[in-house]
Amino acid sequence: MSYAKPVRCGENIEAVLMSVEATPKKSVRRRSAELGVSQSSVHRILRHDLKMKPYHISVHQGLTPENALQRRTMCAWFSRQDQMSGEQFQTLNDLKSLVERLIRAVTPEQCEDTIQHFLLRMRRCVQRDGGHIEQLL
C-alpha cells in the first residue's frame, strides 16, 4: 500500500523558506503558484513549520496639505456635533437658539476652509467625469 507524500515535507518546507528569503514581500498566493503547492499548505508551512506570520502589504494614502484642510473641516464639524449632542431641548426655540449660537461661533477661517474643500471636491469630480472621488480626497 502506498501513501501520498505529505505536502508539509522537508522538501516543500525548504522550498518555501528559500522563496521567502529570496522575495520576502511576495504574497502567499504568488508563492503558492510558483512552488506548485496549495495556498493553504504554503500558509501552514509559513505559520507552523517556519514560525512566520504572512501578511498583506496595505498601501495608504499619504497626507498632503490638501488633507490638512479636510481634517480641519471635519474637526470643526465634529466639534459642533459634540456641542449639540448633550443638549436637552425643551422647545423649538431652545434648539434654534443653540443653532444660532453655533453659527455665530464659526470663524472666517473655518468658512474659507469649507469653501476650499468644496472647490477641491468639485475639481476632483470634474477630473473623474463625475465618478467616485472619496478615495482621492
What's a quick, concise take on this entry?
This protein is mainly alpha-helical. It has helices at residues 10-22, 28-35, 39-49, 65-85, 92-105, 108-127.
Which whole number gives the mean pLDDT? 79
* Gross morphology: elongated
Number of strands: 0
Give the count of helical stretches: 6
The CA-CA distance between the termini, in Å, is: 64 Å
- From the alpha-carbon coordinates, what is the Rg to the nearest angstrom? 28 Å
Strand content: under 5%
Oligomer: single chain
List the helices and strands and how they pair.
Elements: H1 10-22, H2 28-35, H3 39-49, H4 65-85, H5 92-105, H6 108-127
Helix pairs in contact: 1-3, 2-3, 4-6
Overview of this protein structure:
- The protein is mainly α.
- It is 64% helix and 0% strand.
- It has six helices and no strands.
- It has helices spanning 10-22, 28-35, 39-49, 65-85, 92-105, 108-127.
- Helix 1 packs across helix 3 (39-49), helix 2 (28-35) crosses helix 3 and helix 4 (65-85) crosses helix 6.
- The longest helix has 21 residues, at 65-85.
- The chain is elongated.
- The termini are far apart.
- The model has no long low-confidence stretch (mean pLDDT 79).
What keyword list fits this structure?
137 residues, 6 helices, elongated, mainly alpha
